[in-house]
């Protein structure tokens, strides 16, 4: 049973890292599921306090990533149309122009949304597009840091158990 849990922990945490970039996958939550699998291994040293702390971090980063694009778009002077455009741009870019579209979709989505809202102010639309792109970079960076940290935590916790299983 330990071997199955170890495999699940590693696979889920790797899927979590991939999910930080792919918008359809809940990256940090998949990594947390990997941490839960690691906790179930008989030789794991993970405590309940560690699990609660990582859960709080995963939920906080997931919520921040959800609200960050709208907040940053508005912070850079964008309208509701720009926020909606940025969100649509993430998914459209992912589906239509992978992998580059994942990065450029929020920018062009916010830009187009702002131009549809007010086609006269192109400078503002460009500024909002840059803000949307920055929010994507910051949100993705936060998710990657958390998911990679959980992956490292899983590996360091389970390494002695893995060595014992396969020696």
**Strand element count:** 0
List unreliable stretches of 5+ residues.
none
The helix content, as a percent range, equals over 70%
Query: Between the first and last Cα atoms, what is the distance in angstroms?
Result: 17 Å
Strand content: under 5%
Element pattern in H and E: HHHHHH
How many H/I helical runs? 6
The domain count comes to 1
Q: What spatial form do the alpha-carbon principal axes imply?
A: elongated
Structural class based on helices, strands and sheet pairing: mainly alpha
Sheet with most strands:
none
**Radius of gyration using CA atoms only:** 19 Å
Mean pLDDT level: 88
Explain this structure to me?
It is a single chain. By secondary structure, the chain is mainly alpha-helical. The protein has one domain. About 85% of the residues lie in helices and about 0% in strands. It has helices at about 1-20, 25-40, 50-75, 80-95, 100-115, 120-165. The protein is elongated. It starts with a helix and ends with a helix. The model has no long low-confidence stretch (mean pLDDT about 90).
